[in-house]
Write a structure and sequence with these properties.
With about 425 residues, this protein is an all-alpha fold. Helix content is about 75%, strand content about 0%. The chain is built from 15 helices and no strands.
Length: about 425
């Protein structure tokens, strides 16, 4: 059954609804803050990842599994949280997820071995996934049309801002605390978001718009989504482009610090420069997709991402200087930012009735693909950039090949 009581086996394409409630500035801010769960969890401790590796007597590839575990948790958690939020509303799952995130961040700080840290990071990812999926789904609850595209552009910008702030704060924290203190800082961030959510975040999905039914209904919703060629194309593009991003998150700290001799503070500044490109181009993309073309904007972003990724591969093979890798990273990261708003809008705009479920598949692709790509970067060791270049280039090329799936031809959703 759908939220309105119609049979779910043959749903009609959803009409574009008017927003269900006015969106005040406090709610808009909280929705934006919820998007920082992923980037802040990933980026804050990247400057201290080499020190973590040494203290826990681990290898590069095993330490990078702390990134993979968090990414897989973020992916799996969204598949669970998305359908649950369509059924039970957005607010209650959100509050449970933020509390669990705060607790598991403390557990990460207390981990005695790299194996226990990997497990704690996985659970932290599961909890953090709730905020990410609900930020996207709640946005679909309250925005439509051009405002929806602009909203997803803002989410991209805020994710980039978190990526800037995270490594910079992490680098500064490293001057007076160790990696355990960084995870305690993440717990404090969780507390702050919990307080903001309690004070501001009201329910955005009324009871009469919620999905009824159990597991079989959820599986029918997944089948409905996966039968849509445009949805699948947008999801695959998101997954492959974020594979390149998470390869960067996993490998750049070793390459820039180990090979090019940057300090944690210098690395955080270089990372911030690339993330600034993510912010600027994410903002431009949201505006451009609204006034020009979602598919055209997507194609431009994929071209940028592929150019930057091929530059990284060339830099690795030819041992080019620091400026070459910085420019290539800037181009690739900015290109991914351009793809994000139109890809998200293309995936979710036709499914207001199951926005949480649709968002969960988008998040699954983003973090599962990224989690699989991250450990591949360290196969050659901390001082070999070639696997990084290969992974980034292959991911960007695969994303570009999926552009044909989101063509102008409309496909059935039933």
């Amino acid at each position: 059954m759908t939220a309105t009581g119609a049979p779910s086996h043959a749903p009609a394409p959803a009409a574009e609804p008017a927003p269900r409630q006015a969106v005040g500035r406090p709610l808009a801010i909280v929705l934006g803050l919820l998007t920082i769960f992923g980037p802040i969890s990933m980026d804050l401790y990247l400057p201290v990842l080499p020190a973590l590796t040494a203290e826990l007597q681990s290898t590069t590839s095993v330490a990078q599994l702390t990134i993979t575990a968090c990414l897989l948790g973020l992916a799996i958690g969204q598949v669970v949280a998305g359908p649950l939020s369509d059924r039970f509303g957005r607010r209650t799952p959100l509050l449970i997820g933020v509390i669990a995130y705060t607790v598991t961040s403390v557990l990460c700080a207390l981990s005695p071995t790299v194996e226990t840290l990997i497990l704690a990071r996985f659970v932290q990812g599961l909890a953090g996934a709730v905020g990410i999926v609900i930020a996207q789904a709640a946005g679909r609850d309250v925005y439509s049309g051009g405002k929806l595209i602009r909203y997803y552009g803002r989410l991209t910008v805020l994710g980039g801002l978190a990526a800037i702030i995270g490594p910079v704060i992490g680098g500064q924290l490293a001057t007076f605390t160790d990696w355990r203190g960084v995870f305690l800082f993440l717990a404090a961030v969780g507390v702050a978001i919990l307080v903001a959510s309690l004070l501001v975040f009201g329910e955005t999905l009324p009871k009469d718009h919620r999905i009824t039914g159990g597991l079989s209904h959820t599986l029918n919703d997944f089948r409905r989504l996966l039968a849509n060629r445009k949805f699948v194309g947008a999801v695959l593009i998101t997954g492959f482009t974020y594979s390149a991003i998470f390869a960067y998150l996993s490998g750049a700290t070793y390459i820039l610090q180990g090979m090019y001799g940057l300090s944690p503070q210098e690395y955080s500044l270089a990372f911030g420069l690339n993330s600034l490109g993510f912010v600027i181009f994410g903002f431009i993309s949201g505006r451009l997709a609204e006034h020009w073309s979602e598919r055209g904007t997507l194609a431009a972003g994929l071209a940028m991402a592929l150019t930057g990724a091929l530059g990284l591969l060339a830099t690795a093979l030819l041992h080019l200087p620091l400026i070459a890798i910085v420019l290539s990273l800037f181009t690739m990261v900015s290109g991914v930012a351009v793809t994000s708003p139109p890809a998200t809008s293309l995936a979710l705009k036709d499914y207001p009735d199951i926005a949480g479920t649709a968002s969960s598949l988008l998040g699954l692709a983003r973090f599962a693909f990224g989690g699989l790509a991250a450990p591949l970067v360290g196969i050659g060791g901390a001082t070999d950039p070639v696997p990084f270049g290969i992974v980034a280039a292959a991911a960007a090329a695969a994303a570009a090949l999926c552009l044909g799936l989101v063509g102008r031809r409309r496909t059935p959703v039933a």
